[in-house]
Amino acid sequence: MDLPDEMILAIWNKLSKIDVLYSFVGVHQRFNRLVFDKTYIQSIELINSNSKHKHLMTVPILDRFCSYILPQVHTFVESLTLESISMERVLSVGTYHHLRKLTIINIDQEFALRHFTDESPFTEIFNEQITHLKISIIDPERSLSSLIDLTTNVFARIFSLFKNLTELDFGSTGRRRYCPRLKI
Questions:
Q1: CA nearest to 35, candidates 47, 54, 19, 57
Q2: What is the pLDDT of residues 125-139, one digit of tens each?
Q3: Does the chain have fewer CB atoms within 10 Å around its N or its C terminus?
Q4: Domain range annotation of the chain
Q5: Helices vs. strands in the chain: H and E counts, helices first
Q6: 101 DSSP β-pair partners
Q7: Long-range pairs for 148-154 at CB < 8 Å and ≥24 separation?
Q8: Per-residue model confidence as pLDDT tens digits over 169-179
């Protein structure tokens, strides 16, 4: 506790933000003050980035984020990166008034058909707030025609729902990459 704030921040910069938030929120008032600084929490990646291949965080970590951490910081978040399977839970935690950039990892056609509609509980966020959208789609050994159908359906949904979109980064993940990365 005798270390200056700058030293603590330098140490935290060597760690992933998700590890810092998970490990230090609620431990000490001083750590909370440092962690909850607006510049530190404006961009949050809710994926495990400790390995070469980013993957879903563990359930206990996601539980702590959704029940304790995000309710305290949601109003300051400007950029979120998350897995498609956790999107609904994460976005339901708060209002995210300043959210402008959304990255969704591993979506499939079912996800797009369910969430990129006017009936989605997140329509207001998608319609009015999101200006930068980055999506990676799952293409587990899809045929070329199947991938083209997926891409067409997802694009149609995105362009009809995201009214303020100024940047779209769209690409596939997987062993076969019939859908090249597309940045608009």
A1: 19
A2: 999 999 999 988 775
A3: N
A4: 41-183
A5: 10, 6
A6: 79, 132
A7: 148/178, 148/179, 149/109, 150/108, 150/109, 150/112, 150/179, 151/179, 153/109, 153/112, 153/113, 154/107, 154/109, 154/112, 154/116
A8: 887 555 444 45
